[in-house]
Structures are given as structure tokens and as C-alpha cells.
Write a structure and sequence with these properties.
It contains 13 helices and eleven strands. The longest helix has about 35 residues. Helix 6 packs across helix 7. With about 475 residues, it is α+β, with helices and mostly antiparallel strands. The protein has two domains: about 120 residues, no CATH class; about 250 residues, no CATH class.
């Protein structure tokens, strides 16, 4: 460990702290705590104690106190979904999102959806922002409008050809109202479905239900767009088949028509004119096929795609993943020109539209919505998935301690008393480096296991 830290070129203070932590008597227990968080980058530190009693006799079955832990604290994962803030917790969040979206596509009775949802009409829609001015891009095999054939990772991609004429105010106002555009889209979608089915809106609602699962993604130009799974269900949700008229063609036609109808008006303010915000013309609607149908876009591909972007935000455009209070801060922190101008536009527009809280969301380029959302009956919830994981770990702990399972008794036979106090978060510099090393080792082990899985399955099949 010491040699590795030295080779990493750590500054003397950090190296000294690494040696202090690694040389402590309770280092093994510290490592165990951090491994349980997956190598969390910013763990929550708690101080407290728990005591499990036999309810009938009052006898103490188990007692735990953080007094015996390294530093007198218990460290728990922060749970941050942003990969830029905590890769370990973001990996867990992405996995949960994947299972949530996939359950709504292929079905999983344990997650609230029967396998028959695979037979329901399902579409994958991408709704984008309109143009706010020409930007550098890669239009197929043709050169960009600037005359250059940009590489895929060219830093100028998504930046304006002429920043002085680019509508920065319109771009951040569009981001700021994107969630409202989505809300109106879902309203109009139901109306368009009823219209195409020849039914009243009430009759259409009584015969069918729409379910959604969506994530937000930033384009290189800094504009938000939404990827959404849209599914037709029967009147009682995924447990009932949709009516005969609820076809995939009807659904895709209704999606296009609804997107074209959406308008959100922004009143004039100061030097800003009145605006009518709409979706962009680059609407993409694709059919989602089952795994064995040989189509390009499969259930697994859709779930993986949405899970990937559930952990990313505006920082992918070069902006910050934390709030910025003024224009000078964006300059000092080295934000590239294009996202910096978008941040500045948010700060300039805040006094004109104070109810839109553009200053608070300047680091998000104006967007203030949730990045991962779903309708109530689409599938399970992130909270339910987290609870399942917590219950599993609690059962493991009870088994290790020899405590009774409360589900095995008709009435609770034990009583748990607990007291916890928040004691801060994060690491010392040396702890941070060691935690990052632990996370890297965990990731490498996962990648190795993923690479070896096909070979193991092939060997298992041969043995059978």
C-alpha cells in the first residue's frame, strides 16, 4: 500500500495521512466499512448505538456501539446519484434504474409487473429542444457548416458557430421549462390517443392506461432532452391487457401529434420578449422489440441506455456539478466558454423571472426537474429496491448474530432500541485516496467477472 501511494505521486501531506490510516490498529475494520459502501467518495458518518432485547424477558440479545469503530464512527454510503460526485453510489443508482426500467419492459412479478407486459405496445421516444442557433456538429459524412470534419471527441462540438448571435436566454429558459413541456406532452398524448380511437377522453381512460419511465440527458450544446419508455396498459395497469384498439401504430402516431401540439408561453420581462417554447423537430420514436426478435433496439438496450444517463447531469457539458453564486466563480473555476455563457444567462435572467429560480439552477443551465421519473404503475420504485437491499443485509446480519427472524414469529419477540447522531461526512485526504483505491479494485473485479461470465455459461452448457 505504501509503495503504491508513493508511486501515485501523492503530495507529502496526503502521503503522511495515508500512512497514518494504513498503520492504525483498526485499519482492517475501516477497510471493511468502506468496502460495504462500495468505496463511496463521500460517506455519511454516524455516531450512536443499538440494542436488541428479548421483549418478554428484557434480556439483551445484542448490543452495538460506534465507540468500537475506527474514529468512533460508522460510515454509510452517501447515496448520491451523480457519477461526478460519487462513482460508487452512482453505480448502485444506475443498477437500480436499470432494473426499474427493465421490469417495466419484460415484466418481473417481484417488482410489480407481470411478464405479460412484454406483449403490450411499447415505444421509445426521444424529445429534444429546438435550435437556438447553429452549432458545430458532425452531419453524417458531410463536413460541419464551419467547413471542418470534426472528430467524435472534438471539444468544439455543440458550441455555437457564432456565440454573439446564439440565443443563450432562450436556451436556458427552455431548459427551465422542460419539465412543463413534458407535463403538457403527457396531457396531449392522452387526448390524441382518445381522438385516434374515436373515444371521449373519459372512455379512453376507462379502457386503457399509459405508463412512462424517462430520464433527462444533456446534449453537447447544453440543452436537455428526454428519453422515455411509453407503454400501453389495460384499465387496471400492467396486470390487464390493453384494448384491441390500443395498437403500436396508434401510440406512435399519437406521440408525434402530441409533441407537435405542446406550447408553453413565457411572458416578456425587462429586455426579454415574450416566448412560446416548443419541442424541437428532431423527434425520434422507435419500437421496442423483445430480445429474440433480432431488432436493433431491444429491451435490454433501452434499459441500459436510460440507466447510463440517470447518473449524469449538466457536468457532461463542461459546467459544474455544484451551485455557482456569481459569474466570477464560473471564470475562476475554468468553466468553458459555452457553458459559462449559459450560466451567465441564468444569472442575468434571474431578476426578470425570480419565480423560476434560475440563479439556484445556473449550474444546471436552468434545468430544475428530476432526471429520472416514472408514472405510478410503470413498475417498482427506487425506494422499494433500496428497501429490498436493506432487508437482505439486515437478514444477513441477524443470521450472523443468531437473532430470530421477525417474520418467523406471529408477533414480534424482540425489541430494538437505537440512537444515532449525524457526525459529518467525507474523508481526510489520505482516507479519500484509500477509498478511491478500494472503489477501483471493486470496479476491476466487477469487470473481470462480467468478462468471464459468457465463458462460464458456455462451459456450464457444455457440461449439461
Amino acid at each position: 500500500m505504501t509503495d503504491t501511494a508513493t508511486q501515485a505521486g501523492l503530495d507529502p501531506a496526503t502521503l503522511s495521512d495515508v500512512l497514518r490510516v494504513a498503520g492504525s490498529a483498526d485499519f482492517d475494520r475501516w477497510q471493511e466499512q468502506i468496502k460495504r459502501t462500495g468505496g463511496c467518495a463521500d460517506p455519511i458518518r454516524l455516531v450512536g448505538a443499538t440494542k436488541t432485547l428479548d421483549r418478554a424477558t428484557g434480556h439483551v440479545l445484542h448490543a452495538y456501539s460506534t465507540d468500537q469503530e475506527p474514529g468512533g464512527m460508522l460510515r454509510l454510503a452517501c447515496g448520491n446519484r451523480r457519477a461526478s460526485r460519487c462513482p460508487a453510489c452512482a453505480w448502485t443508482y444506475a443498477g437500480d434504474t436499470y432494473h426499474l426500467i427493465r421490469a417495466g419492459l419484460v415484466g418481473d412479478p417481484n417488482k410489480g409487473t407481470p411478464h405479460t407486459v412484454r406483449d403490450h405496445p411499447r415505444a421509445f421516444a426521444t424529445l429534444t429542444a429546438p435550435s437556438f442557433g447553429p452549432v458545430h456538429n458532425r452531419p453524417g459524412n458531410r463536413p460541419c457548416a464551419c467547413g471542418t470534419r470534426h472528430a467524435e471527441d472534438a471539444p468544439e462540438l455543440g458550441t455555437p458557430l457564432n456565440p454573439t448571435t446564439y440565443d443563450y436566454a432562450g436556451a436556458v429558459l427552455w431548459n427551465n421549462h422542460a419539465s412543463e413541456l413534458w407535463r403538457y406532452f403527457t396531457i396531449y398524448l392522452r387526448r390524441e390517443i382518445a381522438k385516434r380511437a374515436g373515444l371521449t377522453q373519459k372512455a379512453a381512460r376507462e379502457q386503457s392506461r399509459l405508463s412512462f419511465g424517462k430520464v433527462a440527458e444533456y446534449q453537447k450544446r447544453g440543452a436537455v432532452h428526454f428519453h422515455a419508455v411509453i407503454r400501453f396498459d389495460g384499465p387496471e395497469g400492467p396486470d390487464t391487457p390493453p384494448p384491441a384498439w390500443a395498437t403500436l401504430d396508434l401510440l406512435t402516431d399519437a406521440i408525434r401529434a402530441a409533441a407537435a401540439r405542446v406550447e408553453v408561453d413565457v411572458p416578456p420581462a425587462g429586455d426579454q420578449p415574450a416566448r412560446t417554447l416548443r419541442w424541437g423537430t428532431q423527434l425520434d420514436v422507435r419500437t421496442i422489440k423483445a430480445f429474440d426478435e433480432g431488432e436493433e433496439i431491444t429491451e435490454q438496450a433501452v434499459a441500459s441506455y436510460l440507466a447510463k444517463y440517470a447518473t449524469k447531469a449538466a457536468e457532461t457539458t463542461g459546467t459544474l456539478d455544484r451551485r455557482v453564486g456569481n459569474k466570477e466563480a464560473a471564470v475562476l473555476l475554468g468553466v468553458p466558454d459555452h457553458p459559462r455563457r449559459l450560466i451567465e444567462a441564468c444569472l442575468d435572467l434571474h431578476p426578470l423571472y425570480p419565480d423560476r429560480k434560475l440563479r439556484d439552477w445556473a449550474h444546471m443551465l436552468g434545468f430544475r426537474g428530476h432526471f429520472s421519473t416514472k408514472s405510478r404503475r410503470y413498475s417498482t420504485t427506487l425506494g422499494a429496491l433500496r428497501q429490498t437491499r436493506a432487508d437482505y443485509r439486515a437478514a444477513q446480519q441477524r443470521e450472523a448474530l443468531g437473532l430470530p427472524d421477525p417474520d418467523d414469529a406471529p408477533e414480534a419477540t424482540t425489541l430494538t432500541l437505537a440512537h444515532w447522531t449525524y457526525a459529518g461526512h467525507g474523508y481526510t485526504p489520505g482516507e479519500s485516496w484509500l477509498a478511491a483505491t478500494i472503489h477501483r479494485d471493486i470496479q476491476q473485479n466487477r469487470e473481470t467477472a462480467r468478462e468471464e461470465l459468457p465463458a462460464l455459461l458456455e462451459l456450464e452448457g457444455a457440461a449439461v
